[in-house]
User: Fold this.
Amino acid sequence: MYQKKTIANRTIEPFGANKRPYRVDGAVGRFKFKTHYAVNSKGALFDSSQSVFTPLKPKQFYLTTGFKEVAMIMGDTEESFRKTSKLINHIRYQQKNGTPSRTLYDQTQKEGTELIDHLKQKADDLNQGNFNLDGVCINPTILRGGEPISIPMEKIQEALLESSFNYNSTDPLSNPVIYEESSQTVNISIDDVTPKRQKNNRESPKVTEHSRKYVHDTVTHIEFGDKKYVLTGDCTKTCLWLLNAFLSYNSLFGKRLQIFTDGHKALNAGILKHFAWYENMQIILDWFHLHKKFKEQLSLTMKGRVLRNTTLGKIMPLLWHGLTNEAISYLENIPSSEIKNYEYIRKLVDYLNRNKSNIPNYDLRKRLKLRNSSNVGKKINDLIVSNRQKKNGMSWVKKGSLNLAIITSLKINDKFKKWFQDKEVDFKLAA
Assistant:
């Protein structure tokens, strides 16, 4: 016969229902049910709210996989938390007792934090033994691989004959950027995305465009053949650490690493330092950003739009064909009567000198069907951050922006089902 037991200084019945119901937030709605306990003859307590179901804190809800897919993947990675909350509660006919927008925000932040911690731990495990904490390779001879593999010279000569541009005999072949064999190349785009940062308090002075602060998320897009993957981090260093782990996991060290950037000085310096041990790596300055840079700077340099457009029409073909020295010479010989500010001429010359090794022959690369641009990476940046976080009136704290971005990258990589069900994400390339 069962008798009452004293546990934790309280007397309880030998079996019965727990006073606190078990709460669930699911795709079909919010609901709760009773859980039960029992005490055996030896005083051992069995509680289904702890042993059968996931233990919850007093006001916490258990989130089903279906709810996370609807609310996070289909919902707040696309629209605001308020709109998502309103929509899912309307669909579930729970406008009064549904999921509040603030609760949805907290749930998404918690999920993002868990995912970030998981990815960092995964990267730490994969990098252990190969890289130190600064990302420097410990055993470069094992991972470095062989010499870069280029497209056969006959193909390069054929593409060169198709061009109508008047080259000197050695110009196209003396460019510092090789014409890599695409089947042995990993194309990588790295860029920072900067949503507006939230003010510390509502009584701060009015924010102008010049005083506006931003949060920085770094997005890395990896492409090998027809397979792709996206990594997201809080800074360049974090993304490069994740990139090391990803390349190791997919056995891509030894391949050509072709990294496309916008030419930002700090970003390029960080990449070069990180991969200083890896000889088969090249940074390429994205053509779109190169053209944008000259268009903006020449507007500040030349006396009027007509002269700006004339100069742009002369210098951009030189850069398109990788003739950096000729472009520098042209800038230095622009008549003084056409210039309103020499400072920007100097800046453009310094910019070209600094990026000379990263400016390829874009024309010849296009004819050889090689990548010239980080436009794929830019599109991914829009999908992961800009489309959701750069709408009018939106501003973010650093952690909130990153947590939402990391869940969106989970969606882009199509890894969310495995994460929600098993709390595991692999680094496997996918078509």
Summary: The longest strand covers residues 185-193. The longest helix spans residues 101-127. The chain has a mean pLDDT of 87.
